[in-house]
Amino acid sequence: MTVHSPDRPLAPAGLLTATRRAVVFDLDGVIVDSFAVMREAFAVAYAEVVGDGPAPFEEYVRHQGRYFPDIMRIMGLPLEMEEPFVRESYRLAHRVEVFDGVLELLLTLRVRGLRLAVATGKAGDRARSLLDGLGLLPFFAHVIGSDEVPRPKPAPDIVRRALELLDVPPEEAIMVGDAPTDLASARDAGVASAAALWVGPDEEELLGAGPDAVLRRPCDLLALCPAVPGD
């Protein structure tokens, strides 16, 4: 049975009543809107390393959630694109914005006693730098990058590492992501997954990946994360 109303996420009834002590978030497309910066950084890197012609950014976006070098391998592009892409991403970081409603969500989850982590396709240092610049880093007990685990998404390693650091069992956590790789990583780690649709991803593809819950606004997550018992 599913439960759905304007004030509730689309989720199985059991997921709405589960005891939950932790939330693991993806970063880009969930917490921050970085796609304009990504597009510009990718175009510069492509021009510097590959040369003339349109940069295939739309294809790059379809692989979001993966580690940048892995995306380059999948797309058949030079790994040398990473250096200018990272350089431009740092240079343009001041243009990255936090999605509406995310700050309020993080504040409420903290008040309710949930532990929060980020598990991102970005390198860890870059993710922490970005969150620090936005004033969000203190909300997260841990921020884990794809360069800090043996296998990046869609492997479960990064979610498992988050759970280990948070000291929370899989059944008491939920992963929020905007890409099929996020959902696959959560599923194989034994963690419930929630699809974030507020950035406007390929909804059909994301829903086809079988999330346990569907969130159309950041605040929808609150129905799945009541106050931690005893806190």
TrEMBL record:
Signal peptide per UniProt: none
Listed Pfam families: Hydrolase
Species classification: Bacteria, Bacillati, Actinomycetota, Actinomycetes, Kitasatosporales
Name the record gives this protein: HAD-IA family hydrolase
NCBIfam families linked: AHBA_synth_RP (TIGR01454), HAD-SF-IA-v1 (TIGR01549), HAD-SF-IA-v3 (TIGR01509)
Native species: Streptomyces cinerochromogenes
Xref: InterPro entries: AHBA_synth-like (IPR006351), HAD-like_hydrolase_sf (IPR050155), HAD-like_sf (IPR036412), HAD-SF_hydro_IA (IPR006439), HAD_sf (IPR023214), PGP-like_dom2 (IPR023198)
Gene3D superfamilies: HAD superfamily/HAD-like (3.40.50.1000), Putative phosphatase, domain 2 (1.10.150.240)
TM spans (from-to): none
